[in-house]
Design a protein that fits this description.
The complex is a heterodimer of chains A (356) and B (686).
Chain A (H helix, E strand, L loop, with lengths): L13 E10 L3 H7 L6 H6 L3 E11 L4 E5 L6 H8 L7 E6 L2 E2 L5 H10 L1 E4 L11 H12 L3 H14 L15 H13 L5 E5 L7 H18 L2 E6 L2 H7 L2 E6 L2 E6 L1 H6 L4 H7 L4 H4 L2 H4 L14 E2 L4 H10 L4 E4 L5 E5 L1 H9 L11
Parallel strand pairs in A: 3-8, 3-9, 6-7, 7-8, 11-12
Antiparallel strand pairs in A: 1-2, 1-4, 4-5, 9-10, 12-13
Helix pairs in contact in A: 5-6, 5-7, 6-7, 14-15
Chain B lengths: L1 H25 L18 H14 L3 E6 L4 E6 H25 L3 H6 L2 H6 L10 H16 L1 H16 L3 H31 L1 H16 L3 H11 L3 H25 L3 H9 L4 H12 L1 H22 L7 H10 L3 H27 L10 H4 L1 H23 L19 H39 L3 H33 L3 H30 L2 H16 L6 H8 L3 H25 L3 H9 L4 H34 L8 H9 L4 H34 L3
Antiparallel strand pairs in B: 1-2
Classes of the chains: A alpha/beta (356), B mainly alpha (686).
């Protein structure tokens, strides 16, 4: 599903500048003593643990950034810094240009009530409230009347396809259904920013796949700015506009899925990308070549956003290079069968820049 | 490696025992020998405490107070006026509930005057007919937990009414209905504070420990001095005793709320109050309601003890009956208290376990069906009572209230039973009694009294060192030192000897019964049900049958203690054995263990830490009962506490004695908990 990032919107919705979250060992005091300078070595010697280490990035309107890392990599901590569920040790975070860390409690509550929604790994539904009441909860916290909030919640129930179960309690729902409630609740206030903390990790593989499709469907409709945390690299590839891969609190690489697969920045990232079937990730536009001889090309054409896997057979059956077109049917490059064969059968490397 | 540590522990322990006995033999028993008995350095503290409290209440911060009776200002102290106003409002609340249930004029008097009531014959609050209360209780039972509870509640209330105990039972109930909500609110508030602030929690914790191990009796004197005598004083003593478990369970429940739920609340834009009242407390609902259940149980356990300081009701009548050795009557009253306890226990547990239901799409009558049914019961009961006036012309209106002693009584039957037992079994029981006292109890008591203080310290601190290192040794030593420096060390030794004796027997019985019952799922269920039921009985109840059988002797006390303390020993053994993880059981089965091997090499080692916690409970229960046994007549700390009740300077000594008992309990508690925690960590049981 193609999703274009609105590049013309110059203000990032989320901006992190050298964000640090440091646990233990009197981190705050040590940093104050060093006049705000953060020396990783000194702090680690003092017994500090880096949850997030110098994270800087931007997320633009309508973009989905997936933060991927194994457990303990600091991905959830980073998410909690940006939602201010945990205090950031150092650095700056801007939401829509506003300094998040400088906000007082009242402004923060206002921000959460109107601009933020969050989905949790363990669903975190209130056990004493029905589906409808759970979804209406954030609205009621804002002061929306019971009647209006329930009406709005009923609409949300339809959105996540839970019709007929409005009056069930969380204990009466399966994991997938509970997470649908969690998603509906997080969207009830129509937030601009949507945080998802491993939303599908607690679900069975088949349900997970179903929920990912559902999620993509919702995002296609709503076009939110999303920060999505997962430990599942395949999930990240499937969903992301950009992926940030974290290890020990450091963002190892942040880039579009195809670029990560094609050009893993570090050996750690390469470990994830090695086993990824490239043909399922790469798009025609990622591997096309310059148009050489315009006369010797095929009659058929492929879209630059088509996944290689879906066109591989047709391209291989074509003796001449196949043109790649953009949205306006203009030819922007060609695809050679040699490239496809390389992608399909070369184990250790792909594309134009092989990795050792 | 672990083998080595275990052996070294055994070696340490053997060495400790050898040193202990050597010290016992070597130290000269003489009053001037400091190794034999420490000097009573704290002997002056009780008097000082009494004086301080008396100063605070009578002389500190004098203020002018207008007295409407003499129509002039008089001098009083701030604290006295403060406690007096608390007493007044509490008493008003209790009287109010009591008059709703039983009728009366005091509530109306509170708003008008005695003259007004005397002049207007209509100014009399009518009682709720007992049929209405019964119906409402049955309805409540049905609403909370279904048909069976309704049947049981009906049986219990009708029993109470028919046996003519309605009035005292309602008096007790009115007292519980005030003390319990007060304790719940106070406990919840403190629990929330402790949850919010680590400092509050750290301060509250030791206070809770002491409050829960102090014998009930020792609160009574200070409460009477501060608040006077009467129902309100009983209620206050009850609140002090019933609040700690509520605090603990609220805190436990709040801490068990998963961080993600709290984060979800925050991300949904809750402010502090919304987070507390709409997320935290509803999510912790079950634990908090279990706390409510505990509070109600404590209130009933105090019903008898509070009657020492003037609380009316079943407890007061029971105390009178026991003092007059009217066993039959005491039994009937005891059964009433037990019935109320079990009913309230089941009702509150039903409430705790009840899941919230969804109401919004029901019609008005469906939504309010219980309220409508209650109105129906009220109307029908009132009409019945009204017509009853004509049916039982002139006599007692049995449809309205059955007065005390106008009901059925089986007292003469019980009395005859007791007489028959005295006639036929007296000889046998007496022989057993004498044999036990001469051959076991007296030698054991002498052995305890013959321990030099230095040897006791070496033993206790040594065990502390082995269990939890130098810190535990110091903690235990500190507790003991306090007791040793009071003038009651010998009495404490007697308490210790009675407790030890009872605990040993209880643990043996409990372990055997527990192990046997744990072999079978049905037996497990039955024994746990039995333990649950017995545990709801207020401790005082256990004294009635033993007095019936053994009269007023040490043996009676010990048997009551053993019966009472066997409950936790059994329960924890069963629970520990049944909670062995199934995967380990399966692993055992696949290794081909037989039944005995399974028990000795899988179940018992894994259940041992839990069983030790059971022994800890057994010690606490036994200690409590030994102190209550003072009612029958013992010569330990409990007896002194009981005496301090009737002493006008008893505040200080009552409190100090209470602390002595609490410290014995806390020392044992500390040792066992430290050890069980370490074992659990070793076994990876968390």
């Amino acid at each position: 599903m193609p999703r274009d990032v609105a590049k013309e919107d110059t203000h990032p919705v989320i901006r992190c500048d050298s964000v640090y979250k440091i646990f233990g060992g009197n981190a705050e005091k040590n940093i104050r003593d060093a006049d705000g300078a953060i020396d990783v070595k000194t702090l680690q010697d003092a017994g500090c643990i880096f949850g997030v280490n110098d994270a800087s990035f931007e997320v633009h309107r309508g973009e989905m950034l997936v933060v991927m890392g194994l457990s303990g990599s600091g991905k959830s901590t980073l998410l909690r810094c940006i939602s201010r569920l945990t205090d950031t040790t150092a650095g700056k975070i801007f939401i829509d240009g506003e300094d998040l860390l400088a906000m007082n409690a009242k402004d923060l509550i206002e921000l959460r009530r109107n601009k933020m929604g969050m989905v949790f790994q363990s669903f975190a539904l209130l056990p004493h409230k029905t589906v409808l009441e759970n979804i209406a909860f954030p609205l009621q916290m804002k002061g929306v009347s019971t009647q209006d909030s329930i009406k709005r919640a009923a609409a949300m129930v339809e959105l996540v396809s839970l019709g007929g179960r409005e009056n069930y309690f969380p204990r009466q729902l399966s994991g997938g259904q509970q997470q649908r409630v969690g998603i509906a609740r997080s969207l009830a206030v129509e937030p601009d920013i949507w945080f998802l903390d491993e939303p599908f990790s607690a679900l069975d593989p088949l349900i997970r796949k179903e929920m990912q499709d559902e999620f993509l469907r919702l995002q296609g409709m709503l076009n939110k700015t999303i920060l999505f945390v997962t430990h599942d690299f395949d999930e990240a590839l499937r969903l992301a506009d950009r992926i940030a891969i974290m290890k020990d609190g450091i963002i190892e690489q942040i880039d579009a899925p195809a670029n990560i697969v094609l050009n893993p920045a570090t050996e750690y990232v390469a470990k994830f990308t090695n086993d990824v079937p490239r043909e399922k990730v790469l798009k025609c536009g990622d591997v096309m070549e310059e148009v050489g001889d315009p006369s010797g090309i095929s009659d058929m054409s492929v879209s630059k956003d088509a996944i290689i896997e879906s066109v591989a057979e047709a391209v291989l059956n074509e003796p001449k290079p196949v043109p790649v077109t953009n949205g306006n049917d203009e030819m922007i490059g060609v695809l050679n069968s040699k490239t496809i064969i390389h992608i399909l059968f070369s184990k250790s490397s792909a594309g134009t820049s092989p990795v050792a | 490696m672990s083998q080595l540590i275990r052996h070294s522990r055994l070696a340490q322990f053997t060495t400790l025992l050898v040193v202990f006995f050597l010290l016992c033999l070597l130290i000269e028993p003489s009053e001037s020998n400091i190794l034999w008995r420490l000097p009573a350095l704290l002997a002056a503290v009780p008097t000082a405490l009494t004086d301080t409290v008396n100063y605070l209440i009578f002389d500190w911060a004098p203020i002018e107070i207008y007295n409407p009776e003499i129509e002039d200002y008089e001098e009083s102290s701030l604290l006295k006026e403060f406690t007096r106003s608390i007493s007044g409002s509490l008493l008003f609340c209790i009287e109010f509930i009591r008059e709703v249930l039983l009728g009366g004029v005091k509530t109306i008097v509170a708003f008008t005057s005695w003259d007004y009531v005397r002049e207007n014959s209509w100014a009399h609050w009518p009682a709720l007919p007992w049929t209405v209360v019964t119906g409402a209780a049955i309805l409540l039972g049905y609403a909370l937990s279904g048909r069976w509870l309704a049947v049981f509640v009906g049986f219990a209330t009708i029993y109470i009414a028919v046996f003519g105990q309605w009035e005292p039972a309602m008096e007790t109930l009115s007292f519980v209905l005030i003390a319990a909500p007060l304790s719940v609110l106070l406990g919840l508030a403190l629990g929330v504070l402790a949850y919010k602030s680590r400092k509050v929690e750290a301060t509250l914790w030791p206070l809770l420990n002491i409050a829960q191990t102090m014998p009930h009796f020792s609160y009574l004197v200070p409460v009477t001095v501060l608040f006077g005598v009467g129902d309100h004083a009983g209620a206050i003593a009850t609140v002090i005793f019933a609040t700690p478990p509520m605090i603990r369970l609220s805190l436990l429940g709040l801490k068990a709320v998963t961080p993600e739920v709290i984060e979800a609340g925050l991300m949904n834009g809750c402010n502090k109050f919304q987070l507390l009242f709409r997320v935290l407390i509803p999510t912790a609902r079950r634990n908090i309601l279990v706390g409510v259940n505990q509070v109600i149980m404590q209130c009933l356990a105090m019903a008898v003890i509070a009657s020492f300081i003037g609380a009316k009701g079943l407890g007061y009548n029971l105390l009178l009956a026991l003092n007059q050795l009217r066993i039959g009557q005491a039994l009937e009253l005891g059964i009433c208290i037990v019935l109320i306890a079990v009913v309230l226990d089941k009702l509150s547990l039903g409430w705790a376990n009840k899941q919230v239901d969804y109401f919004a799409d029901l019609t008005f009558s469906q939504r309010h069906k219980y309220a409508i049914m209650f109105l129906g019961i009220l109307l029908a009961g009132s009409l019945l009572a009204y017509f009853g006036k004509f049916i039982f012309e002139g006599g007692v209106n049995y449809f309205y209230l059955i007065p005390h002693n106008k009901g059925v009584t089986t007292e003469f039957l019980w009395q005859a039973g007791v007489d028959w037992m005295v006639d036929n079994w007296y000889q046998g029981l007496q022989i057993f009694n004498t044999a036990l006292i001469v051959n076991v109890l007296v030698p054991m008591k002498n052995a305890y009294l013959g321990m030099p203080v230095a040897a006791t310290f070496v033993l206790a601190m040594g065990v502390g060192y082995i269990a939890g290192g130098i810190r535990s040794a110091l903690v235990v030593g500190g507790f003991l030192l306090f007791i040793a420096l009071t003038e009651w060390w010998d009495r404490a030794l007697i308490t210790a000897y009675m407790t030890t004796f009872a605990v040993i027997i209880s643990v043996v019985i409990g372990a055997v019964v527990g192990i046997l019952c744990a072999q079978n799922a049905l037996a497990t269920k039955l024994i746990l049900l039995l333990c649950d039921t017995l545990q709801t009985f207020p401790s005082f109840i256990y004294l009635i049958p033993v007095i019936m059988l053994f009269g007023v002797t040490d043996t009676s006390v010990l048997i009551a203690v053993i019966v009472y303390a066997t409950i936790p020993a059994t329960r924890y053994t069963v629970e520990g054995l049944r909670n062995v993880p199934p995967s380990l059981q399966e692993a055992g089965s696949m290794s081909g263990v037989n039944r005995l091997q399974r028990l000795t090499s899988i179940e018992l080692p894994l259940a041992f830490p839990h069983i030790m916690l059971g022994i800890n409970q057994t010690v606490v229960f036994a200690l409590f009962m030994v102190i209550i046994g003072a009612m029958i007549g013992t010569d330990d700390l409990g007896q002194l506490i009981l005496k301090s009740l009737s002493d006008k300077d008893g505040i200080g000594s009552g409190l100090m004695l209470g602390l002595c008992v609490a410290f014995i309990g806390l020392a044992v508690d500390h040792l066992i908990h430290t050890w069980a925690k370490e074992r659990k960590a070793v076994l990876g049981l968390g």
